Amino acid sequence: MKKVVLFIFLGFFCVACKQKSKYIHAGAVQLSTPSVNSSSIFATEKNYLEAPYLNPSHQLEIIHKESKTKKIYESQEKISLSQTGTYQIRSVASSFKASEPIELKVLPPGKKIASVIWDSNPKPKYFKGGDKVLNDGKNAEISFHSNGWAGSNEFFRLALKMDGEMKIDSLLIGTLFNPSAWIYPTASIKLIIEKANGDLLEKKFEIKVAGDMNEQWHEYVTLNLNESAERIQMEILPNELPEQHPGAGTPSWIFLDELIIY
Amino acid sequence: MRSRREFLNTSMVLGASALIPNLFWQCEHSEALIIGHGDFKYKIDPQWGVLNASKTPVKDCHEMVQTKNGDLYLLTNHTQNNILVYTLDGKLKKSWGTQFPGAHGLTLFDENGTEVLWITDYERNQIFKTSLDGEILMTIDAPQDIDTYKDKKNFKPTETAIAPDGSIYIADGYGAQWITHFDSKGHLVNFFGGYGTGKDQFQNAHGICLDQRFGKTPTLLITAREQQAVKRFSLEGTHLNTISLPGANICRPVIHNDNCYFSVLKSSGVGNEDSGFVLIMNENDEVVSCPGATFTNTPNGEKQYHQSLRVFKYPHDVCIDKDENVYVPQWNSGNTYPIKLERV
């Protein structure tokens, strides 16, 4: 008899607990992706992660992809980014689904560029930080409204000047990927490489970054040069937004942050 | 030696006992999530109003209002049925409208005891007054007295506010950003605002409403969505003050009782673009709750609002019913129906 009572109790218990609430529960909700940045693009002891808007009750899970190390940090903890490579970062909190990860690249220091000059006039609408943002060694905030970006949807020209001729293996171009704001790094790039003796060499590239239309991130595009140069003129023509984009057929916005040579 | 019956009984008890921790876990995690702050907290009912998409589909769900009899009118830019009329329990009562491809703003107005709707269509560059059954009673075109609107494509109205005398204020949030004022017959009376960063100008004058709270002189609340602010104007078009809401791209102001509610299409400070939430301000223009979001104090002493939970996907409007529940239609959310927030 006792067993029968126990079974009835358990039966009710199971039914009660298994009844699905019509309301959303915490376990079904994902945390928002943190907006993260670093004080420098380059790996140094003084390079710290910044997540200014992280909810104080959430934590950051950080994976250094190359070394496969993982650590959880409290929201107010100081986090040093001293290793080069890609850090995969997401918000975590008990009960909730972890956020989508966001990646932050930390690069080895590049060769010195004496100056970067934006040649095109008039200056574009998104040029609050001027051309100095293009080699200040800092990541722009992920928002295109921040001062760290120079953005245009028309042809523009830049010049990179070195202190004398130097060997350049590659040129890294920091861009923003944010299709919902029509910022989509698809462009034709012409480089005119000028040597110390005045010789000119022309190289052409097509760049196109693809990804989820609802996401945004800082993307580095590598152009392999393997040339010596004293000055490089970059001519960038934004391509049309691709077919799958609501603005297909109109020019994309190209947002540049950092230009690095190796 | 135990009998087979005893063995089975024991096994069943043990088996059931083993389930208990798991069931407790399920119970704990099945508790409804409550979002919001202070007196404005809500449970989320995502199933409310979900319909058969093959019969009554939606595209972007732009705005929603509640009529005197409690029915909820949803405006979508799906031209199979621009208006869906819901009963409070989320059942479809009727639908109408096939002629508004750019259906965006929906305002309810009580015209001497008869309720009418005002619909803005940014693709047709027009606004329409309709009966609750969809009969078009009046149309307003791009006002030709304003140079910018000689090309009617510059007129992309997003919202209307109707004054007690029946005159109409139109926010041109996707066009030239003028706030135009028409008399109740549809004649242009005044215009102000326009595109710019000045205190009386707009970047995305997306929503407008009449604020008649507390017996004060009526004013207009107009959102400047890209500027993350709401601006207060006199009915004559004089800028009175700006309420800054850093981080929050607010769509339209909706006044209910003493408070002003906003859907926030998206927020800055978050890595995902679908970063919207709901925001509620009290009579002193102080934020008292932001369901789905939190805020951070910035070094300059301002509060920066940002999504913390991905509950919403581009919320575009809020409609508050007589029981203080909030309905949230969403833009670009994958053809989903509105979400109901049930006040707790």
Characterization of the model:
The complex is a heterodimer of chains A (262) and B (344). Chain A has 262 residues and is mostly beta strands. In chain A, 6% of the residues lie in helices and 40% in strands. In chain A, the strands form three sheets. In chain A, strands 7, 8, 9, 10, 11, 12 and 13 form a seven-stranded antiparallel beta sheet that branches. Chain A has a four-stranded antiparallel beta sheet with strand order 4-3-5-6, with no helix packed on it. Chain A has a two-stranded antiparallel ribbon with strand order 1-2. Chain B is mainly beta. In chain B, strand 25 and strand 26 form a beta hairpin. Chain B has one domain: TolB, C-terminal domain (Neuraminidase), CATH 2.120.10.30. In chain B, the strands form seven sheets. Chain B has a five-stranded antiparallel beta sheet with strand order 1-2-27-26-25, with no helix packed on it. Classes of the chains: A mainly beta (262), B mainly beta (344). The interface between A and B is large, with 43 and 39 residues.
What are the salient characteristics of this protein?
heterodimer; A: 262 residues; mainly beta; Immunoglobulin-like; Jelly Rolls; 2 domains; seven-stranded antiparallel beta sheet; 1 helix; B: 344 residues; Neuraminidase; four-stranded antiparallel beta sheet; 27 strands
